[in-house]
Design brief:
Layout lengths: L1 H8 L13 H11 L4 H28 L1
Helix pairs in contact: 1-3
Length: 66
């Protein structure tokens, strides 16, 4: 989760993909444009933060019960 969070934080310079269904979309954009747009990187960063948030919430929920 920390590497995903760090990549998402640096979305302007890094493409972070947490959903394998996005692979073909990102690859196609890269092939067509030689880069991945900031708009796409932003969407992917939001997805990454959502995923790490879900992970953190699961840990919190588990620890709260113990």
């Amino acid at each position: 989760p920390n590497m995903i969070r760090a990549a998402a934080k640096n979305f302007e310079n890094v493409v972070v993909i947490v959903n394998p269904k996005r692979y073909s979309q990102v690859l196609e954009e890269y092939k067509n444009n030689g880069d991945v747009s900031v708009e796409t990187r932003t969407v992917l960063a939001v997805e990454a933060f959502k995923e790490t948030s879900r992970y953190d919430s699961a840990i919190y929920g588990f620890l709260e019960k113990t």
